Amino acid sequence: MFKTIVNAWKTVDLRKKILFTVLIVLLYRVGTAIPVPFLNAQVLSSSLLSSQGSLFQYLNILSGGAMSQATLFALGVPPYITASIVIQLLTIAIPYLERISKEGEEGQKKLNQLTRIATVVLGLVTSFGYYKLLENNNAITNKGVFPAFVIILSYCAGSSLVMWLAEKINENGIGNGISIILFANIVSRLPSMIHNLWSAYLTSGNAGKIILGIGVIIVSLAATALIVFITDSERRLPIQYAKKVVGRKMYGGQSSTLPLKVNMTGVMPMIFANSIVSIPATIQMFVNPKQGSFWAGFFNLFGTDGWLYAALTAILIVAFAYFYVTISFNPIEVANNLKKNGGFIPGIRPGKPTSDYITKVLSRITLIGALFLVVIAVVPLVANIISGAKLSSLAFTGSSIIIVVGVVLETAREIESQMTMRHYKGFLE
Question: Which CATH number fits domain 1-187: 1.10.3370.10, 1.50.10.20, 2.30.30.40, 3.30.470.20?
Answer without folding.
Answer: 1.10.3370.10
